[in-house]
Design a protein that fits this description.
The protein is of the alpha+beta class. The protein has one domain (6-65): Pemi-like Protein 1, Chain: D, CATH 2.10.260. The protein has two helices and four strands, in the order E-E-H-E-E-H. It is elongated, with a radius of gyration of 16 Å.
C-alpha cells in the first residue's frame, strides 16, 4: 500500500483508511509506538490495546478446542 506524507499543522503524517484501522484493531485516539529500524522502515505498534469482544470469543474457542 502506497501512502503520501501529508502536512498536518506544523507536523506531517500519513492518513490510515478505515480498512487499515479495522484490520489493525485501532481507532482514533489509540496510542501507538513508532519504531525506526536501521533500514529506515517505520513500525507502528499498538499500545494499551484491549481485545475486542470478537477477539476474546475467538481466543476462548481456540482454547476450548485444543
Amino acid at each position: 500500500m502506497i501512502k503520501r506524507i501529508i502536512k498536518i499543522g506544523n507536523s506531517c503524517g500519513v492518513a490510515l483508511g478505515a480498512t487499515v484501522l479495522k484490520r489493525a484493531g485501532l481507532k482514533p485516539g489509540d496510542r501507538v509506538n513508532v519504531a525506526i529500524h536501521h533500514s529506515g522502515a517505520l513500525v507502528l505498534t499498538a499500545l494499551d490495546r484491549c481485545p475486542t469482544a470478537e477477539e476474546i470469543e475467538e481466543r476462548i474457542k481456540r482454547a476450548l478446542s485444543s
